[in-house]
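Sat 14:20. Reprocessing the chain from the morning session after the first attempt stalled halfway. Input below, unchanged.
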Amino acid sequence: MPILTKIKSSIFLKLVLILIGFVILVNGLAAFLIYFTLDRNPQSMVNRYPVLLSKYIIEDIGMPPDTNKAKQLANDLNMNIRYELNNFRWTTDPTIAPAQEILNSSSYDSSKTYTYYNYRLYAVKKLPNGFVTVAPWLPRDFINLPKAIISVIAFITIVIVVLYFVLRWLFSPVKILSKGVEEISKGQLDYKINVETKDELGKLAILINNMTENISRSIKAKETLLVDVSHELRTPLTRMKLSSEFIDDEKIKTKIKDDVNEMEHMVGELLDNYKKGNALSKPEISGFDLNALIQSSADKILNDRIIFKKQNKPFIVKADREKIETVIKNLIDNALKYSKEEVLVNAVPNPDNTEGFILTVTDKGIGIPKQELSFIFEPFYRVDKSRNKAIMGYGLGLNIVKKIIELHNGTIEVKSEKGLGTEFTVKI
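Finished this time. Tokens:
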């Protein structure tokens, strides 16, 4: 049992066992291949020797033999020839045994047309003036070629199929891990990776799950702390506002009121964004005029830098009107914060979905560094680390936008160059 436990908990040991099994399989199949394709009945091959000896080697080559013809015939038939005549000695291979030595051997059988001698196949023909001996010189003479080709193909196929399924089984958790990491990278911190193996991949899945739980708890704790602090700030802000009314100096009173109003606005916006982010649920789909909604959203923001060319005819789409309004407002507001020039808003039908749309919001502001593009949709993340009071916000707007778009099974892309501007593209 301890050995089985070690094997289950180690990919390395599994790979070693697979390698051993693969070697055994290859050797077994190779042995079977040789056994199956070897012509174990040489009679099928050597039965042609009497014909070769009488018709070609004796008749065509002639007596005395024409050595050029003999060489050509030996090459064509993949065999060696030895002549031992009264006045003529010639061979294509000096290692061929003399005819008399073969005839005197214990393995010689006069009833057969062939003889095995010294692990080699011979056929000897007695002539009036001597002997002629032939012997195959290529191992393939013993192989049934059609069987060999079919067996090799089958052998390779079996090995590849077995190896594929074994490796697929062994590394199947990698696919699960990859999908899990992809979902977590999208911000789905509640996603759990289900890998049941006890090896390194299973332990890695447990560690990733623990990591996401810790990150999720950390983010929720940060959100809770921020919201609690914001709630607690309202009471002292209200007292400050009331107390400022008793100040005689109008300049000081006005300054305090402006600061308190600014803080109240910040606290209110923070709590509002937090509520929106946590209240997201299944979208209530309905048809509405997107052009009218964009124009209405722009009018509420009250900024003449917003450029939207409204079309005369309605642009009817199907989505959650209230949530899409939040997307439009947040994207426009984000563009206005980081740009002092015009912000261009455009909406066109989605060619991939007749009831959908493509919304773009483009600015010519400070841009976003490439190394920070992947973080801008995270909660509480801000590109501006200086906390410039002129750029108000808490890093929740884009996070809420992404959540709403994902609820609609849509996508959001961002293109930006530092110092040139940014473009957000929403596809629903």
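The first helix runs from residue 2 to 8.
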